[in-house]
## 1
Amino acid sequence: MEINMKNIKKVGLSALAGALAFTSAQAGDVSLSGSMIASYTKQGGYNTTGNPLGMNKELTVTASGELDNGVGVAYKQTITNAMAYNDSELVFTGVPMMGDATIAMTSTGSPLDAIDDKTPIAFEEANAAVGSLRDVGGVNGTYGIRYTLADAFGSGFKLDAMYTPNHGTGDAAAEKGVSGNTNPDGKDGYDIVLSGAIPGVEGLDIGLGGSKQNNTDTTTANDRDVVEGTAYATYAIGGLKVGAQRGVRDEGGLSSTTYDNEYLGISYAISDNLSISYNEIEGVKNADGVNVEQDFESISLSYTSGGMTIGVLDADADNASYSSGRTQSARSIQMTVAF
């Protein structure tokens, strides 16, 4: 896997260098999009509710253009609720000798994080408002090089891979700069994901992915590399969709800790605008042979009309945040308006 990722990195950088040499960009488009969110949430169990009213906003600036050799270039910058810069991304398409592949320099997610829970939902995942689940995330949140091939080798499956020289160091540094040493023990890391529809079986999709984040070995915590893997299957027939998934995260180290999560979900589209779902998650933390099982259950509903979505969530967690005997519950209603 490491050899493959290094090859992908070298090929991607070489192709980009050749594609961008002696070219100029034509005038492109710039746009601002986002959403406004208002919510009401009532908590129970271990949680206590203060003011149940909440608000959020999400903004994204995008720009796109084309080099005079036909290579497409797209830029994206997200803006936090506090109006600060967040994740950024630069995507190249139509790169010579790369076929339909795209190459991105990005911190806006990672291949493994994109499939951390693929079970069907109407509104939110079962752990969205209760507990604290340690699931697979790969190199998510770190700026790196991402290679995506929509149809890998004519199989119909998508290949999505990403490499970063130092995981856990956040978004891109300024030009000709380097990031802060926010993860001094961190080394390189990578994700590889393969996903798509099963030929001949209409409605059946599967996905398989893995990640490794290398860390410096120390005398107090040898072999501290993080290894993650997940696999899922979903099946849709008419308005009904079911899914199952398992994800494992091994944090290694002197005090070995693993997280083993199993997901089940079923959703039904009552109409084009109204959907409902039921979801379960069983998350087991094993620290030096001692297990704590955290269980989630949720029912969610969503209704969409134009650019507005109303979501309702009823969720519960036992042994919440891997604390034995701790229960949490949440009842939430949210309105999202996109623009």
Note: Residues 25 and 67 are 4 Å apart (CA to CA).
## 2
Amino acid sequence: MAGKLWSRILNPGGGLRYHSRALRYRNSRWQDYRQQLASWLEEWTSAAEAASTDLLLIAPSAGHCLPSTWLGSFRSVAAIDLDPMARILFRRLHGASMPAPVGWIASDVFQEWEALLASHPDHAVLFCNFLGQAAECDEARAAEWFARLPMSLTGRRWASFHDRYSGELPTKAASALDSPHRADSETLLRHFYEKGISGELTEHELPPIFPQDRPYRYWSWPLAPDQFHIIEGCRS
């Protein structure tokens, strides 16, 4: 039991290291990314719509990049996250803006997905930088879950922002990129990286979960001085 708890606290996708970075950089290096993400989320669900909408957050961690005012505009918010530190830090960051306490659920998303949706039948679903990591953390379980995911979201409002690329290769200061369809690698590299720059990048390739011909948006996220991400956003 103690070993499982520590693995969640030290999880590189969230946990202690991520929280430490967030507290250090969220109001400096992350500021532009956070503002761009907030604008996209507000386009997805306006404050007027949110007032009559319940929201289910998938792996929000402490919500370091989520806008407090937007979160607080929903009728209610529930969150699924295994990180034991998430709810404490989330409350410190966003508690004053929330109309009611967030309902936290420590569940395995892969194993209990259908049950989680069934218990939140009318909730809009926001995947919080989860899908790109899910594809790598347990390939066999993730592949099976990804196959079920599109059908499970039918008729439900949803949005996802997730890793498309990551690595030590610095991104240039660039505005968000809007694309009428899922952007190809050449388009993203041209927009976010200096011409002629070379280095290794990890592509967080997802199976075709969402339609490729709907609008997508992309942002640069300078996570740390030696780590840069390109985030992809897609929404219903």
Note: The CA atoms of residues 62 and 121 lie 24 Å apart.
